[in-house]
Design a protein that fits this description.
heterodimer, A: about 325 residues, eight-stranded mixed β-sheet, 10 strands, B: about 625 residues, alpha/beta, seven-stranded mixed β-sheet, about 35% helix, binds thiamine diphosphate, binds iron/sulfur cluster
Chain lengths: ~325, ~625
């Protein structure tokens, strides 16, 4: 390429990450904050929109890809992670971000939630955690605490709520964080870190659903009743260090996971947000590239798969 | 009146406990026959457990082409008592099998372990030859030869090889061919094992020759060297695996299930050297969805499963269809159903399921190849269809095909071409005006490959507009339904007749057999036997199940004098499809649903009894 042609790379405007599709979430829904955070994070990272695949499940949250001007697959209830995995393995040069609700991710998609954690494909999973099934009108979701009764529920829940962070620690996610939908500034930073992490990053986001969840409202998170916010930022504590320095050290892993686990069980008036845990481990895609070395330099989709000489395989059968 | 095949074929069965090396031995034997210039067909039956229960491998060989097995056994080699007499004494209710002695042909032979000390009277037959061989003693002898005397306990699995050697000694085949096959199997580090096995064969053959003077009536000799042909012995799962690599498969996903796993494991072994990735998923739902994700990104993707797994794939299947994913191609290896059913047995009972794999109206293609060559071609073409018509495709296969070995002269790949369908080339990086689900007359909207500038699209499992955004608008819904379904008509128009069906035999015949899938082999072999009854016979084999070649099939069937449907299921599922699509009900049904494939005799006798007894429906099951 002649020197002159190597112009400065185009800078993408924030606007270029937005579509003109009408956003049909309820007014005041926390999803708006998450949407905006993802758009800003992609913009900050300057990832070309055509190099991004947004993949969602079903639910109010599942509509997110329609509003972000990148490649988008709005899939099935609970199945965003396998679709995202297939997408990333097909083209490892794409930035793959999966999004979905807490029902989607921790209920119907629980098996994929666990197995994606242990697989560690280089992608990001963001869960919109509102404690209810939004799109089906407010039934209890897996994160709703036992004994809770939102205004949309005829009876209080008699099932325990799941602890997604603890589940993610057990499943093996290599980057685990939590944000709050209405603190966009902080959330943008978490999304940026999650996307930048090599491996599967998992970000749980407290999201308000003003229509069905009258327990975990904006006011409740703000702690209007107790006179201080319920959101505790882990990094406000200067000693908080969630990053595993030596991935070969079981002791360090157990120690850091233990601290993260303790933080994940904080309830009531203090809800931890921020980065809970981070470790650098070989990703599934890297390991695949050890079997198929060409994948180190080229995405699968670009490999010359159509000129294979299969005669040696027949010869083996002679 | 015997046919040329029935006069010249030789049917050999090795029976014994599962996990005892039956497979390896029988396959070495099959290769020795194949290298001797014979045509070979070999099939295996085994229980759904890992060790111990009765399994058997049947090798049918002939100097002329053979694609099926017969009920009769010319040489039975039994490693245990159960292979001889079955398990009735130990079972409370029905025996799981009745042993093979009653299947031995008149004048045939039975080789078994003399240490079992079976009273010859127990065989209840004076028309067969018994060859008791002291397996252990012969093995001991052979091991001594190679300096491993006194170790026969350690090498007890080599009883199989002794059995092979006895078999060769008694029936008088060329030992060298068996030695070659053994050495071919045990190469490199295993060369020592090869020589031990060769010694075992030699000792056993010598023993057999010296002890037994009466030979079984039917034996097989290699064909003369100058007329031997290089043929491969290939199983269905291998043909499919190789075809997929040839077609440019980039990602295979799977969750282990019989009888589909062999194919994925084969790809796991051979894939990486061809840059094909294989992902073992957490379940079938993940498998299909991962493949869909890959397909949408522009990679050829497939998943392989059996009925229970396909049941879980339903939802994903519809998702692929509504989002117009270029695939995946789902390889559905049928086994006995319903539910977990008969995991290691064969059936053709998933046709109607493959035709209706999910809720709602949507287009997809279903193809059901009948043999190795068709499995290759159809597997290859399925990827072209998936790309071209942007829809999921089902390749419907059977356990029987997956695990059976067929002689094959080489697959003609000269006509196979990759066709990736319409790929939109953006005019600018903004991609203005590009619509992923644009309404077109033939239903096909050009797709883009994510990652390319200007090709950005969104799509969803919800009904969507041409841009891929959710809408419940009435006009859009009608237009989208029509657009998607139009792809099926386009496919029906473009897919060549040769992929849709084959009329074997004369165009006009007194009797028309109708069938699908791998029963093809037994039917093709049975046709000349049925002609001996004084009727001309042809055979309509249907391959493309959706879009169904209704007009052509109707024309053939309307023209037929007498029609007999043959299916490996209870409910005559192809018969139902034909009635639905053409309004024609076939005259007779010959059905088999005991979990085993049709033998040639079952075809012949089933057809005969349907006609002679004037029965609409005949069930066959020759134990
Ligand atoms: C297989 C299946 N079961 C049920 C549904 C119905 N459904 C649609 S959205 C939804 C719940 C969504 O809740 P959540 O995942 O928490 O997301 P939110 O709407 O709260 O963002 C359900 C159950 C479905 N679409 N698919
Ligand atoms: S129902 Fe709740 S989650 Fe869904 S859009 Fe409305 S406010 Fe948001």
């Amino acid at each position: 390429m002649p020197e002159a042609a190597a112009a400065a790379p185009k800078k993408f405007a924030l606007q270029e990450y937005k579509t003109e599709v009408h956003v049909d979430w309820c007014p005041g829904c926390g999803d708006f904050g998450i949407l905006s955070s993802i758009q800003q994070a992609l913009f900050q990272l300057q990832i070309p929109p055509y190099k991004v695949a947004m993949i969602s499940g079903i639910g109010c949250s599942g509509k997110t890809p329609h509003y972000i001007d990148t490649y988008g697959l709005h899939t099935l209830h609970g199945r965003a992670l396998p679709v995202a995995t297939g997408a990333k393995l097909a083209n490892n040069q794409l930035t793959v971000v999966a999004v979905g609700g807490d029902g989607d991710g921790y209920g119907i998609g629980a098996g994929y939630f666990v197995n994606s954690g242990r697989r560690n494909v280089d992608m990001t999973y963001i869960v919109f955690n509102n404690g209810v099934y939004g799109l089906t009108k407010g039934q209890a979701s897996p994160t709703l605490a036992k004994g809770s009764k939102t205004k949309s529920m005829p009876e209080a829940s008699i099932q325990e709520g799941v602890n997604p962070i603890a589940l993610a620690l057990g499943a093996g996610y290599t980057w685990i964080g939590r944000g709050y939908a209405l603190d966009v500034k902080n959330l943008v930073s978490l999304v940026v870190q999650a996307i930048s992490h090599k491996g599967t990053s998992f970000l749980d986001v407290f999201q308000t659903c003003p229509v069905y969840n009258d327990l975990r409202t904006k006011e409740w998170y703000a702690g209007e009743d107790i006179g201080r916010t319920r959101i505790r930022k882990l990094d406000a504590d200067a000693k908080w260090d969630p990053i595993v320095k030596d991935p070969a050290s079981i002791d360090e892993i157990v120690e850091k996971k233990g601290l993260a686990l303790r933080a994940s069980y904080e309830t009531g008036d203090s809800l931890a947000t921020g980065v809970f845990y981070s470790i650098q481990l070989p990703t599934y895609d890297e390991q695949l590239a050890m079997k198929v070395p060409a994948l180190k330099d080229h995405p699968l989709v670009d490999l010359p798969l159509y000129q294979r000489d299969v005669d040696p395989l027949f010869a083996e059968l002679a | 009146m015997p046919t040329e095949l029935s006069r010249r074929e030789f049917s050999w069965v090795l029976g014994g406990p599962q996990g005892g090396g039956i497979n390896a031995s029988a396959e070495i034997y099959a290769k020795a026959l194949s290298h001797g210039g014979l045509h070979v067909f070999a099939n295996i039956e085994f229980h759904s457990n890992i060790m111990g229960k009765h399994s058997y491998y049947r090798v049918t060989a002939a100097p002329v082409p053979v694609h099926s097995h017969i009920d009769e056994i010319h040489m039975l080699v039994a490693l245990d008592q159960e292979s001889l007499f079955g398990d009735a004494p130990e079972r409370k209710h029905y025996p799981s099998h009745t042993g093979h002695v009653h299947q031995v042909a008149r004048g045939g032979g039975v080789i078994y372990d003399a240490d079992l000390k079976i009273d010859p009277g127990r065989f209840g037959r004076d028309d067969i030859n018994l060859y008791p061989i002291p397996f252990f003693e012969v093995l001991e002898e052979a091991l001594k030869e190679v300096g491993k005397g006194g170790q026969s306990r350690k090498y007890i699995v080599m009883r199989n090889t002794v059995a092979l050697g006895a078999s060769i000694g008694i029936s008088g085949y060329d030992e060298e061919l068996l030695f070659d096959a053994i050495r071919n199997e045990f190469k490199g580090r295993k060369a020592e094992a090869a020589e031990m096995n060769v010694a075992a064969v030699r000792a056993a053959a010598a023993y057999a020759r010296s002890q037994f003077k009466t030979k079984p009536e039917r034996r097989l000799l290699p064909v003369p060297v100058e007329s031997r042909k290089d043929r491969m012995l290939i199983k269905g799962f291998q043909a499919v695996g190789i075809a997929k690599l040839k077609a440019g498969l980039g990602m295979q996903t799977y969750y282990p299930i019989s009888p589909a796993t062999d194919e994925s494991v084969y790809l796991e072994q051979k894939g990486p050297q061809y840059q094909c990735t294989v992902v073992q998923c957490e379940d079938e739902i993940a498998s299909i969805n991962m493949a869909i994700g890959a397909a949408h990104m522009g990679v050829r993707a497939a998943t392989s499963t059996a009925g229970p797994g396909f049941a879980l794939m339903s939802e994903g299947f519809g998702f692929a269809a509504i989002t117009e994913a270029p695939g995946p191609v789902v390889f559905l290896w049928q086994r006995g159903g319903p539910s977990t059913g008969l995991p290691t047995r064969t059936e053709q009972a998933d046709l109607q399921f493959a035709l209706h794999p999910a809720h709602g109206d949507f287009p997809h293609i279903v193809v059901a190849p009948g043999d190795i060559d068709e499995s290759f071609t159809d597997s290859f073409e399925s990827f072209n269809w998936a790309d071209r018509y942007q829809m999921p495709v089902v390749v419907l296969l059977e356990k029987f095909l997956a695990s059976s070995m067929f002689s094959n002269d080489g697959i003609d790949m000269s006509k196979l071409k990759i066709d990736r369908g319409l790929i939109h080339q953006p005019v600018d990086a903004d991609g203005d005006g590009y619509r992923r689900h644009a309404i077109t007359a033939d239903g096909i909207s050009p797709r883009t490959i994510p990652g390319m500038p200007g090709g950005i699209f969104s799509t969803t499992s919800d009904e969507h507009d041409p841009e891929g955004h959710i809408t419940e608008g009435i006009e859009n819904r009608i237009a989208m339904m029509r657009k998607r379904m139009a792809k099926l008509e386009t496919a029906a128009r473009e897919i060549p007749a040769s992929s849709k069906f084959t009329l074997h035999g004369p165009r006009q015949a007194d009797m028309t057999l109708v069938a699908w899938g791998a029963t093809k082999g037994a039917i093709v072999d049975a046709m000349s036997e049925l002609e001996n009854d004084g009727r001309s016979v042809n055979f309509l084999q249907i391959r493309l199940m959706r879009p169904f070649p209704a007009d052509a099939v109707a024309a053939i069937l309307r023209n037929a004098r007498l029609t007999v449907l043959i299916e490996n299921n209870y409910s005559a599922q192809l018969g139902a499809l034909i009635s639905e699509q053409t309004g024609i009900a076939l005259d007779h049904h010959v059905l088999k649903y005991d979990g085993r494939p049709f033998s040639r005799n079952e075809i012949v006798e089933g057809v005969r009894s349907a006609l002679s007894e004037q029965k609409k429906e005949v069930m066959v099951s020759h134990a």
